[in-house]
Write a structure and sequence with these properties.
Number of domains: 2
Number of helices: 13
CATH architecture of the largest domain: 3-Layer(aba) Sandwich
Low-confidence stretches: none
Strand order of the largest sheet: 1-2-4-3-5-8-6-7
Mean pLDDT: 93
Shape: globular
CATH superfamily of the largest domain: Zn peptidases
Structural class: alpha/beta
CATH topology of the largest domain: Aminopeptidase
């Protein structure tokens, strides 16, 4: 099978393949269940396949003793579910047969944000970014969070149709230069990526309430933490980091140092969201499950991380390109574009940021995933 065959062409094709994957799981876990939860429509949703959207997962409990639980998730940022689905298939083919079903349970989640995957957007139809929605205390849904976002809102949230591709780029560069002279580039970048709860039509908007998808995942995590002694969660994302490489992004709540994890996993690219190599996140799903374990089951052990597939690269120029692509895509979606050609160019940039079609990139990411899965699953006791 070539690398390209791992990457689905559409949300519908990916979901159908997932429905068939339960057969492979049942070879070792005969009682494995496919659960398909219909999601209540959100304002603005359109169904392309004539069916309601579903949040789908496979549950397979340990056959003899509930020692270890492996949770595998993708598509929290909808469009990133395409690359996530490829890693999921790699896991099923090469690592699932190496797990011990007697002591290991599975929770395999196809796509946390199916509307976003179907429509090739990061967010839900109502604009909520689910990876800013996993708050432990709902008081965190405060418009006062991340005040610097409001300071740069005119840059991040243009409220007019996009008329010029070059003009949009120049406006961002001008704003970046002004920030460098006043607040600093780091503060500007942090304002963009941290998350915010004030501008529903802005990017990284965390919402004003827990979303249905978020609640389902919270319940799934809570049940798993209650049942098993050791939990590992691997969440697939794409976009940031060195091009064609996978970064293992850990929570600041993970007690081990990145350099210790690098040695343990025999994998070089491990960072925390407190490092200069990655950014902190409000309402982050990985932070949530660490808080859950600390609160509900402090004697149990957890390793949770995001596997982030880099696309444009990790240079300052690449980071600027990423933000420009996000700003323009959101502007065009919310306010329109001056022409169909301009809309298509913006959509192409956005696709390149989250689901590259380059076969070399696809093969490189699969190779890194193979190494990362091997290191993490062995170090955490899931495989020999």
């Amino acid at each position: 099978m070539t690398a390209q065959n791992f990457y689905p062409a559409s949300y519908e094709a990916s979901r159908q393949a997932f429905y068939q994957d339960v057969t492979a799981v049942r070879q070792s876990w005969p009682a494995a269940r496919l659960i398909s939860h219909p999601l209540a429509p959100t304002d603005g949703e359109e169904q392309e396949d004539g069916k309601g959207l579903t949040l789908d997962w496979i549950e397979a409990d340990a056959l003899e003793r509930p020692e270890k639980l492996l949770i595998f998730t993708a598509g929290e940022h909808g469009i990133e579910g395409y690359a996530g689905a490829a890693l999921f298939e790699l896991f099923l083919q090469e690592f699932l047969p190496r797990l011990d079903p007697r002591a290991t349970g599975l929770r395999l989640v196809h796509c946390i944000n199916p509307w976003g995957m179907q429509q090739r957007r990061k967010v839900k139809a109502n604009g909520v970014d689910l990876n800013r929605n996993f708050v432990w205390d709902t008081a965190a849904f405060s418009p006062a969070a991340n005040p610097d976002y409001a300071r740069f809102a005119g840059v991040f949230n243009p409220t007019r149709p996009l008329r010029s591709y070059t003009g949009g780029q120049l406006a961002f560069v001008a704003a970046l230069l002004r920030a460098a002279l006043t607040t600093g580039v780091h503060r500007f970048s942090l304002a963009a990526t941290l998350g915010q709860y004030r501008f529903p039509k802005g990017f990284y908007y965390g919402g004003d309430a827990i979303q249905e998808e978020t609640r389902l995942m919270m319940d799934l995590y809570r049940a798993g933490v209650q049942q098993y002694q050791h939990i590992a969660l691997l969440d697939m994302h794409s976009g940031f980091g060195p091009r064609g490489r996978i970064s293992v992004i850990c929570s600041p709540l993970e007690p081990r140092r990145p350099e210790d994890l690098q040695r343990s996993f025999a994998y070089p690219q491990v960072v925390k969201t407190t490092d200069e190599k990655f950014y902190p996140i409000l309402g982050d799903m990985i932070d949530y499950i660490y808080t859950l374990v600390q609160h509900d089951a402090p004697r149990k052990s957890l390793f949770a991380a995001t596997l982030e597939m880099g696309t444009l690269g990790d240079s300052t120029f690449a980071s600027a390109r990423s933000l420009i692509a996000m700003i323009m895509e959101n502007q065009v979606y919310c306010h329109g574009a001056g022409s169909q050609d301009l809309r298509q160019r913006v959509e192409q940039d956005f696709e390149a940021l989250y689901r590259p079609a380059d076969p070399q990139w696809q093969a490189s990411v699969l190779a890194d995933a193979r190494q990362a899965f091997q290191g993490i699953l062995k170090a955490e006791g899931f495989i020999e």
